[in-house]
């Protein structure tokens, strides 16, 4: 271990470790790139890819992000952007959950949907993309629908679950399973020019209160559709919430819902308890 740390220090400049040196160390010492990344961060050496993070996050915080495990449930419009941003931030473990394959109507907005990917499992495309952009991040693809049977196992060891789903019953099930497991959940929804954001901590019952009036209806995105920009905006807000939860910083949008209107560029914060539908 001491020899490896010295190897990393010798190849660092200004406390920054190039990816080439990180990869070289993995080969030389018979380790994985994620293992080398953890050793580097633990030893006070920052991988160069996170150079632009360090004015926002300390080394211990970057290490905390690396040691975090996040489940993204739904890997389409929202989920693709969420996974991309989590991987680039350096979240060490991502579980991508979605049973679907890419179809042609996904091409207008889903980040990993390209003509050559049509018919491919969305989670497989996500895992391939993560491996390409950040080899220190482990993305486990689960090509299954999240349900009451597999939910407890899929949420095992997870620090935060992120909602990339497209139906109210599915979101309510995820919220309930997170409640049972004592896991925070970040909720996002999109439809046309509009979006929603809320964060549920154990005991809050946020989603239950938010959708109390229309538990069985499909999400309004089914009626209003989605352009390319709405999922990108809401996904970014969801990832910001994830970071605040994992690092215990800032103020998550708890007991509230952010209503987003990109057509009129209005962001309205609603205290839960008011009638929502």
Structure description:
The structure is a single chain. With 277 residues, the protein is of the alpha/beta class. It folds into 2 domains: 2-62, no CATH class; 69-271, NAD(P)-binding Rossmann-like Domain (Rossmann fold, 3-Layer(aba) Sandwich), CATH 3.40.50. It has 11 helices and 10 strands. The radius of gyration is 19 Å and the shape is globular. The chain starts with a helix and ends in a 6-residue tail after the last strand.
Mean of residue pLDDT values? 94
Report the major sheet.
8 strands, mixed
**Globular, elongated, flat, extended or rod-shaped: what is the shape?**
globular
CATH architecture annotation of the largest domain: 3-Layer(aba) Sandwich
As a percent range, the share of strand residues is: 15-25%
